[in-house]
Amino acid sequence: MQDFILETRGVCKSFHGQMVLDHISLMIPEGCVYGLLGPNGAGKSTLLKMFSGMLRPDEGEILFEGEQWSRQCLVKTGLLIEQPSLYENLTARENLEVRRLLLGEPRGRIDEVLDIVDLKDTKKKRAGQFSMGMKQRLGIAAALLNHPRLLILDEPANGLDPFGIQELRELIRGFAAQGITVIVSSHILSEVEQIANYIGIISEGVLGYQGGMKQGEDLEQLFTEVVKKNRRKAIC
Fold first, then answer.
1. Residues 6+ apart with CB under 8 A from 124
2. Which candidate, 53, 44, 43, places its Cα nearest to that of 15?
3. Residue 181's closest CA among 2, 58, 4, 9?
4. Is 172 exposed, middle or buried (0-12, 13-18, 19+ CB in 10 A)?
5. Which pLDDT score, from 0 to 100, does residue 1 have?
6. How many angstroms separate the CA atoms of 25 and 12, rounded?
7. Tens digit of pLDDT for each residue in 3-33?
8. Cα–Cα distance measured from residue 165 to residue 20, given in angstroms and rounded to the nearest whole number
9. Which of 98, 148, 91, 100 is nearest to 120 (CA)?
10. Is 27 helix (H, G, I), strand (E, B) or coil?
11. φ and ψ at 155, to 5 degrees?
């Protein structure tokens, strides 16, 4: 029997009378890279904000390691949703020190995560002078400080150049190899195709597909079929 680190069961969410998530039931296996795909506005970020405690479902439930989700689950979760929250006048080390103190982690953990994301040599350079790729990596370093079992990355490749995307891809593969489950939300199919073991496709607030990545599968065709099908349903 497969173990799931995170599940949602019939999760619904609406804003101002408009349904944004319609009975979403995800099953995310431990130790995988799960690609959460969908067009812009499909509801991906809304769902991820529920996993971070920023939003609550109107209906349904969220389970973490088989238990009802609570804010205590954040102790085992690393989050990078939308843009990294950084103090641009501080160095990479100083940014992490602020978060380390809040988490109560030992000071040596800063060197460990800076080494993981290859930012140990930035010295006194302030975060405001970092490239977009460096800022993303610093955001990921902050998300790793608490030794998470689950790492959630929302559109992490946005604004990155090809070199930055390649670095990010290698990082994510490395996390999965260490046993960290990674959820990557994206609308960039080619990137998810190269790193994900499992995928879920959301369109019009509906989970239209969920399953393992199959050898030789045409992800673009599958994505297009799911999106078109859900749009037809929404119109009807």
1. 91
2. 43
3. 4
4. buried
5. 52
6. 10
7. 899 999 999 999 998 999 999 999 999 999 9
8. 29
9. 91
10. strand
11. 50, 55
Under the banding of pLDDT at 50, 70 and 90, the label for residue 56 is very high
Tokens 């000071």 label which residue?
107
Look at residues 101, 50, 106 and name the one whose alpha carbon lies nearest to residue 73: 50
State which amino acid sits at residue 44: K
What pLDDT is recorded for position 127? 93
Q: What is the pTM of this model?
A: 0.91
Pairing assessment for the beta strands 181-186 and 150-154 based on DSSP bridges: parallel
Residue 225 sits in which domain range?
Answer: 4-235
Share of the chain above pLDDT 70, in %: 97
**Residue type, position 126, single letter:** R
Q: Could you give the CA distance from residue 62 to residue 78 in angstroms, rounded to a whole number?
A: 17
pLDDT value of position 191: 84
Distance in angstroms (rounded) separating the CA atoms of residues 203 and 231: 7
What single DSSP character describes residue 204?
A: T
Pick from 77, 105, 110: nearest CA to 91:
110
Both tokens of residue 120?
């140990």
- Domain with residue 190: its CATH number is 3.40.50.300
**Number of domains forming the structure of the chain:** 1
